[in-house]
Write a structure and sequence with these properties.
Blueprint lengths: L4 H33 L1 H4 L1 H9 L4 E2 L2 E2 H32 L2 H27 L1 H18 L8 H13 L14 E2 L10 E2 L9 H10 L2 H32 L1
Antiparallel strand pairs: 1-2, 3-4
Protein name: Tetraspanin
Membrane topology: Multi-pass membrane protein
Keywords: Disulfide bond, Membrane, Transmembrane, Transmembrane helix
């Protein structure tokens, strides 16, 4: 079956791109399997070492459980990418219209889902911020201990020290009038009435993340355009194959 110049270029691009996806997906999936079942990496020895160093629980969250869940996510994402890449690569190599259509539909669904997700996040950004703030404030009010003698309180104090901040919106979010020394620039003891009480942490954290907005937007737009091109190339190749049949 002879393809035109444009269809041949589309075929080559699809093969190259999806071969990369095959390798990438396989690599991510294997990494997830190793982290999930490789006892040398996340086995009992590492778990005991983390406990002895008192780093197995950070802010009330079990690090080992998080790592285990992350490994499962890597497996699922990796083999999904491998599957999609396989469909695209086989469809282009074999010039199989069914595989190409299935591939294009999956990529198109992912593309639409990403656009909808971004739109929803942008539309409900303030609600998202309020929800996150409420969660942090609830933890401060119910579980934080000013003496800092537990893992969660120590984690918050480390955050206060690192970002030179206090509370979520302000020090008023703290459960007691007496504040940890990290909440003041120099006063010790530190309290809500101190003149050098630091500002809230949420704005500082948000500002730091927002510094990378241009990078996130650039990468996101590039990925969306890339996916759109894959869909277009797939349909172009399908049309060319149909003409030659």
């Amino acid at each position: 079956m002879t393809l035109g110049c444009g269809a041949s270029i589309a075929k080559v691009i699809l093969i190259i791109v999806n071969t990369i996806f095959l390798i990438l997906g396989l690599g991510i999936g294997i990494a997830g399997l190793v982290f999930r079942f490789g006892t040398d990496l996340l086995g009992d020895k590492i778990k005991e070492a983390m406990k002895s160093l008192k780093v197995d629980v950070v802010g009330g969250v079990n690090v080992y459980d998080v790592a285990s869940s992350l490994s499962l996510l890597l497996i699922i994402v990796g083999f999904f990418i491998f599957l999609v890449g396989g469909l695209g690569c086989c469809g282009a190599c074999c010039q199989n219209r069914v595989l190409l259509v299935v591939y294009a539909i999956i990529v198109a669904i992912l593309l639409i889902a990403q656009i909808v997700g971004v739109a929803l996040f942008a539309g409900f950004r303030s609600e998202f911020d309020d929800s996150v703030k409420k969660g942090f404030k609830d933890i401060l009010q119910t579980k934080y201990n000013t003496t800092g003698n537990d893992d969660l309180s120590q984690s918050y104090n480390a955050l206060f020290n690192l970002y030179e901040c206090c509370g979520v919106d302000s020090a008023a979010d703290m459960p007691d009038n007496n504040l940890p020394k990290e909440c003041c620039a120099s006063s010790n003891p530190c309290s809500k009435s101190s003149t050098d009480v630091r500002s809230g942490c949420y704005t500082k954290l948000k500002d730091q993340i927002d510094q990378y907005n241009s990078i996130f937007i650039g990468v996101g737009v590039s990925v969306l355009v890339f996916q759109l091109l894959c869909v277009l190339f797939s349909f172009c190749l399908c049309v060319a194959i149909g003409r030659d049949e």
